[in-house]
């Protein structure tokens, strides 16, 4: 169901929900005798801390690294069981590389081991992003001198998101009905429909259509459309576009945690799917602007960490240290919880084909939501750029590079090049 943010060789297949059961049928039926080595809790934490320090290149590169060392070299788990585990995690929200670490840590030292493994994997990126957020806010006058560079980077980030939409859609939009769901999700997002209405209607309607219950699906769609139209004036009027929200209610710890938790629970299709939800709760409420938001996504793409670590940066800019930690806790909590609490029961639940159809519809709607968000972000970038032709040229060049260059280093190199181009071009504009 998910697709990675970067393309790199990996032996574990990337599957859509409807294919998960087929993948499981290839799993070995004999007892898995592969076991992790007997490590102390400290050694286990340090083992996964090393993975965190080397977690460049997006989830495919991260998963390939974990598989190479823990499956092929050290035999923590058999290859067949690893593939089955990955298939389960791809159906669930959250960064799958982090969830793999939590599960493998549990396999070694129980739930405490899972907690330590997950913390070890995320710690390097968290520390780096907290430092970046502090520099960005505390040294704002210096950052302002690099406005041209950041504008170039923002144009490249939009290109990377557009490429992600294509890759995610290629794995998810498997029939004409899913294409229709994605199209409706795109239009509804541009209209301003609340994302929860889109997701609930999309999942329910597609599951009903797959079961050939077309009349009931039509009723669901009509009810969702009526609710969206009825709530539209309320949603649009709740916060005027030029309103900047401040204060404890908007930027408090609980609000930041809730924003992160929604992102962590709704990241179907990879970390890029968290972007619309976090943007709606921060940019949509005037806590930060689109340019700053895109800067956070860019920083997350060049440090060793799951891409959702951009939430740490957004939380820092919007709510300081407590905001950053609260949003980080929210976005990573599901990744810990699913493996540490529910994994023993997940296989039976995820094997239900009705759940596959529901999640397929949700995922298709998410593709449309991200596509609409990328259009909104691109339009905002053009409005900030001193030269629209230069911004478009950077976008096109970046899109071509990430489209055809299949390397874990493509993202960082493209962002750095776009920053240099923006600094040279927009400084003179």
UniProtKB/TrEMBL annotation:
<dbReference type="InterPro" id="IPR014047">
    <property type="entry name" value="Chr_Tranpt_l_chain"/>
</dbReference>
<keyword id="KW-1133">Transmembrane helix</keyword>
<feature type="transmembrane region" description="Helical">
    <location>
        <begin position="177"/>
        <end position="202"/>
    </location>
</feature>
<feature type="transmembrane region" description="Helical">
    <location>
        <begin position="409"/>
        <end position="426"/>
    </location>
</feature>
<feature type="transmembrane region" description="Helical">
    <location>
        <begin position="296"/>
        <end position="318"/>
    </location>
</feature>
<feature type="transmembrane region" description="Helical">
    <location>
        <begin position="143"/>
        <end position="165"/>
    </location>
</feature>
<dbReference type="InterPro" id="IPR003370">
    <property type="entry name" value="Chromate_transpt"/>
</dbReference>
<comment type="similarity">
    <text>Belongs to the chromate ion transporter (CHR) (TC 2.A.51) family.</text>
</comment>
<feature type="transmembrane region" description="Helical">
    <location>
        <begin position="324"/>
        <end position="343"/>
    </location>
</feature>
<dbReference type="GO" id="GO:0015109">
    <property type="term" value="F:chromate transmembrane transporter activity"/>
</dbReference>
<feature type="transmembrane region" description="Helical">
    <location>
        <begin position="385"/>
        <end position="404"/>
    </location>
</feature>
<dbReference type="GO" id="GO:0005886">
    <property type="term" value="C:plasma membrane"/>
</dbReference>
<feature type="transmembrane region" description="Helical">
    <location>
        <begin position="112"/>
        <end position="136"/>
    </location>
</feature>
<dbReference type="Pfam" id="PF02417">
    <property type="entry name" value="Chromate_transp"/>
</dbReference>
<keyword id="KW-0812">Transmembrane</keyword>
<feature type="transmembrane region" description="Helical">
    <location>
        <begin position="255"/>
        <end position="275"/>
    </location>
</feature>
<feature type="transmembrane region" description="Helical">
    <location>
        <begin position="214"/>
        <end position="235"/>
    </location>
</feature>
<keyword id="KW-0472">Membrane</keyword>
<feature type="transmembrane region" description="Helical">
    <location>
        <begin position="355"/>
        <end position="379"/>
    </location>
</feature>
<keyword id="KW-1003">Cell membrane</keyword>
<protein>
    <submittedName>
        <fullName>Chromate efflux transporter</fullName>
    </submittedName>
</protein>
């Amino acid at each position: 169901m998910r697709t990675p943010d970067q393309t790199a060789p990996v032996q574990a297949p990337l599957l859509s929900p409807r294919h998960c059961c087929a993948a499981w049928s290839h799993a070995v039926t004999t007892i898995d005798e592969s076991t992790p080595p007997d490590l102390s809790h400290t050694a286990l934490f340090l083992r996964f801390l090393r993975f965190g320090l080397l977690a460049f290149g997006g989830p495919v590169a991260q998963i390939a690294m974990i598989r190479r060392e823990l499956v092929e070299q050290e035999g923590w788990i058999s290859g067949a069981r690893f593939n089955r585990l990955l298939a389960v995690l791809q159906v669930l929200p959250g960064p799958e590389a982090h969830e793999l670490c939590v599960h493998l840590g549990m396999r070694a030292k129980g739930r405490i081991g899972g907690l330590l493994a997950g913390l070890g994997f995320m710690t390097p990126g968290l520390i780096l992003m907290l430092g970046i957020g502090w520099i960005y806010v505390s040294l704002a006058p210096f950052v302002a001198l690099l406005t041209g560079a950041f504008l170039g980077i923002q144009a490249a980030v939009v290109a990377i998101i557009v490429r992600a939409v294509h890759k995610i859609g290629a794995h998810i939009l498997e029939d004409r009905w899913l294409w229709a769901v994605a199209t409706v999700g795109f239009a509804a997002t541009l209209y301003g429909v609340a994302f929860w209405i889109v997701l609930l209607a999309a999942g329910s309607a597609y599951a009903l259509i797959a079961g050939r219950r077309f009349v009931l699906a039509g009723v669901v769609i009509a009810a969702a459309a009526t609710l969206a139209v009825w709530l539209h004036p309320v949603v649009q009027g709740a916060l005027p576009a030029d309103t900047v929200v401040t204060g404890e209610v908007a930027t408090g710890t609980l609000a930041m945690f809730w924003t992160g938790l929604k992102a962590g629970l709704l990241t179907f299709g990879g970390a890029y799917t968290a972007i619309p939800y976090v943007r709606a709760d921060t940019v949509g409420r005037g806590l930060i602007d689109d340019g700053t938001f895109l800067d956070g996504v860019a920083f997350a793409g060049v440090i060793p960490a799951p891409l959702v670590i951009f939430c740490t940066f957004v939380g820092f800019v919007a709510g300081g240290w407590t905001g950053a930690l609260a949003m980080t806790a929210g976005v990573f909590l599901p990744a810990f919880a699913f493996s540490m609490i529910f994994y023993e029961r997940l296989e039976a639940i995820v094997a239900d084909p009705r759940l596959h159809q529901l999640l397929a519809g949700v995922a298709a709607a998410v593709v449309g939501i991200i596509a609409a968000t990328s259009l909104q972000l691109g339009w905002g970038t053009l409005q900030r750029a001193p030269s629209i032709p230069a911004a478009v040229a950077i976008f096109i060049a970046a899109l071509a590079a990430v489209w055809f260059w299949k390397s874990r280093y493509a993202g960082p190199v493209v962002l750095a090049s776009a920053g240099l181009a923006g600094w040279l071009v927009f400084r003179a504009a």
